[in-house]
Write a structure and sequence with these properties.
Blueprint lengths: L1 H14 L10 H7 L6 H10 L5 H15 L4 H6 L2 H11 L5 H18 L14 H9 L6 H13 L17 H9 L11 H11 L8 H10 L27
């Protein structure tokens, strides 16, 4: 019953027509959401999303645009690796400025050299979900979590059409893991076993496992909090076993 209700809510969320908001700042958000003129901004922001908050990572393209006065690929491609290291370090763009400057520099060159200077070629030919995830994985420093997250956002928020969706897995962050444990989908001892969480999501909705990702993330962030969860406000309150203990995070 709980699985069915969760899937129903996830499908409802997916069908909603809402303004896409990846960053709360309007100008920053406009850049990373502009898949027509700046599809590389979306890709570069996704690649930056590690070891810092989501909002800080997705703001990086706009902050670089402000410093350069431009965010065209011609300008980005003209910068050297040392230019990027200085840009990242001087402006403290990331927690790991040296490494992420290298990854940003490499990604720019990959988009120009392998995708004809148009990052939307990663997803624009209605490829399989596995191919889009694989294309993201080919960027330096990108793991399966970022690759599936980026693909899922393209499908969920931008309604990008793919030939299938079964390779878009859930991305188990701290909120998703907490929700899965409290709902009884995984045992407490498996809360850090990402494979078990991913395969559980696959078993729930094989055609599109990542469909429930946003619903679980939002639930964990806003309602099913680590401390003082708002169970009375939860849509799943009557069905959830509420496996809450002092080890939740």
């Amino acid at each position: 019953m709980l699985e069915k209700k969760l899937l129903e809510e996830a499908r409802r969320e997916y069908d909603l027509k809402r303004t896409i908001c990846l960053v709360s700042d309007e100008k920053q958000n406009s850049l990373v959401c502009d898949l027509i003129n700046y599809p590389h901004a979306f890709v570069l922001a996704a690649i930056m999303d590690r070891q810092i908050t989501f909002e800080r990572a997705w703001a990086i393209p706009y902050l670089i645009k402000e410093k350069l006065g431009d965010f065209s690929l011609n300008i980005l491609y003209s910068l050297s690796l040392e230019d990027y290291k200085k840009l990242f370090n001087d402006n403290k763009l990331h927690r790991y400025n040296e490494k992420m400057a290298e990854i940003f520099y490499s990604a720019v060159r990959k988009i120009v050299d392998e995708y004809d200077g148009d990052a939307s070629n990663i997803w624009s030919d209605k490829p399989s979900s596995a191919l889009v995830v694989s294309r993201f994985l080919d960027f330096d420093g990108v793991g399966i979590k970022i690759a599936t997250m980026a693909t899922n956002i393209l499908v969920r928020d931008f309604k990008i059409k793919l030939s299938d969706y079964y390779s878009i897995d859930i991305s188990p962050d701290v909120h998703v893991k907490r929700v899965f444990k409290r709902m009884g989908f995984i045992k407490s001892k498996d809360i850090n076993n990402l494979e078990k969480i991913i395969y559980k999501a696959r078993s729930m909705n094989p055609d599109f496992p990542g469909l429930i990702d946003y619903t679980c993330w939002k639930l964990g962030k806003d309602i099913c909090k680590s401390q003082n969860p708002k169970c009375s406000e939860c849509l799943f309150n009557n069905d959830c076993p509420k496996y809450i203990d002092n080890n939740d995070f």
